[in-house]
């Protein structure tokens, strides 16, 4: 007995295929069969419409970034803008920490209410939903703290005027997401500045000292939000000290100074950035999650033009564009400390609202109107044969035969110290800056 194959139709009816000779369908059966397929086209359309509507409804939810992804992407944009405005205003050597600034101001954003929430969020490039912003930033910080083979600490603290009432919801949120310690102080007491400086110095292994002074506070100061970041990491491929020799570092086309240059020939992620008229070199630290990216302009006086182009570049994508190559590298040793007053810089980034009288920070306290009056940052970085040591604190006041790629960093260049959990993750920028000039060194080190 021949088998009969059964096919479901779009209407849910059952159709049988044409049979062999001796079992052919009659003309009437064919008509009925055609009816069952052709007639219900309006139903097919309805089913397709339903399917398409379902796609339209579920696709946005499926494509939305998680809080972590949103904060990581926002950090990339914030870091690019932060570097743009700070580098433009700082003609000398620069080290800064967009991440330290972001964390400190995010603690203020956590207390925003009303239309101040989206205004501050846009300036910080954070999700408008405060819980999402706090959750995402907390996850980013946690990944940083877990980075292997390097020393990386991130600490936060709030200093509150004695007897000034902080809302429990606010202090609970900061403790949950930032592990913030709160301490009551008398801001008019000169010893308060010493107390804050001692805490910062301890968190940064004595690299950041005197972040604030007694003149930083007055009778109107209600609270100070402080973030401190410290990093020390050995290179994955250290430079050999016996290869370090003095070479000229050009401050312009005609002037140079002799400074110690480290040298090695090895495998590094590298790329020619033709659109920037520059080269990219990425030097990983042990553990592979953190790295220093050097962006070297091709021209001796090309840094200004490079930084103008970086202002519109996709920084995250750019920093990931290197691919492993055998590279010959000459990199000067350097040590930099920078003090920054960031109010004007942050205002240019769209954060003027947080410094205005219109800002609503009643999520911190309803006792008095608050606004951010000052943001100061002190940062330090040292790059040597063994690796890099860097620190930052931000305070926010209310109130040869070989001829592969050849990278000789003998002229002003930009650098970014970044973290990536894995190769496809968005880089998080911890430190950024530029080298303009270096002190004269007569002897090899």
UniProtKB/TrEMBL annotation:
It comes from the Eukaryota. The chain crosses the membrane at residues 44-63. Coiled coil: none annotated. GO terms for molecular function: serine-type endopeptidase inhibitor activity. Residues 80-438 form the Serpin domain. Residues 12-30 have a biased composition (Polar residues). One of its GO terms (cellular component) is extracellular space. This is Serpin domain-containing protein.
């Amino acid at each position: 007995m021949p088998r009969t194959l059964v096919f479901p139709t779009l209407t849910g009816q059952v159709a049988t295929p044409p049979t062999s000779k001796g079992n052919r369908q009659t003309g009437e059966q064919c008509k009925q069969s055609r009816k069952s397929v052709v007639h219900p086209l309006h139903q097919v359309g309805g089913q397709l419409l339903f399917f398409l509507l379902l796609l339209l409804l579920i696709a946005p939810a499926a494509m939305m970034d998680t809080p972590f992804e949103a904060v990581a992407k926002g950090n990339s944009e914030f870091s690019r803008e932060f570097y743009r405005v700070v580098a433009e205003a700082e003609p000398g050597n620069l080290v800064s920490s967009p991440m330290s600034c972001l964390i400190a101001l995010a603690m203020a954003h956590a207390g925003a209410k009303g239309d101040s929430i989206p205004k501050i969020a846009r300036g910080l490039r954070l999700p408008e939903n405060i819980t999402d912003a706090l959750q995402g930033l907390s996850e980013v910080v946690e990944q940083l703290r877990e980075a292997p083979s390097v020393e990386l600490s991130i600490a936060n603290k709030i200093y509150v005027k004695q007897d000034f009432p902080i809302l429990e919801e606010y202090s609970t949120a900061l403790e949950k997401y930032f592990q913030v310690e709160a301490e009551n102080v008398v801001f008019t007491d000169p010893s308060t500045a010493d107390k804050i400086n001692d805490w910062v110095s301890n968190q940064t292994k004595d690299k950041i000292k005197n972040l604030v002074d007694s003149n930083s506070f007055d009778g109107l100061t209600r609270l100070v939000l402080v973030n401190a970041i410290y990093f020390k990491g050995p290179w994955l491929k250290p430079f050999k000290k016996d290869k370090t020799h003095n070479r000229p570092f050009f401050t312009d086309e005609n002037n140079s100074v002799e400074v110690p240059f480290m040298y090695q020939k090895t495998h590094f992620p590298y790329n020619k950035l033709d659109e920037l008229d520059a080269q990219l070199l990425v030097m990983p630290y042990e553990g592979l999650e953190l790295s220093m990216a050097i962006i070297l302009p091709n021209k001796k006086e090309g840094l200004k033009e490079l930084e103008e182009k970086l202002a519109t570049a996709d920084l995250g994508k750019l920093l990931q564009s290197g691919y492993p190559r055998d590279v010959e590298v000459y990199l000067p040793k350097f040590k930099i400390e920078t003090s920054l007053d960031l109010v004007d810089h942050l205002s240019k980034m769209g954060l003027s609202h947080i410094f205005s009288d219109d800002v609503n920070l009643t999520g911190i306290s309803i006792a008095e109107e608050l606004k951010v009056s000052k943001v100061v940052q002190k940062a330090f970085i040292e790059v040597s044969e063994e690796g890099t040591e860097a620190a930052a604190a931000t305070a926010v006041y209310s109130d040869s035969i070989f001829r592969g790629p050849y990278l000789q960093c003998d002229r002003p260049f930009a650098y970014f110290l970044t973290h990536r959990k894995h190769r496809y993750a968005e880089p998080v920028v911890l430190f950024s800056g530029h080298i303009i000039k270096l002190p004269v060194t007569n002897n090899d080190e």
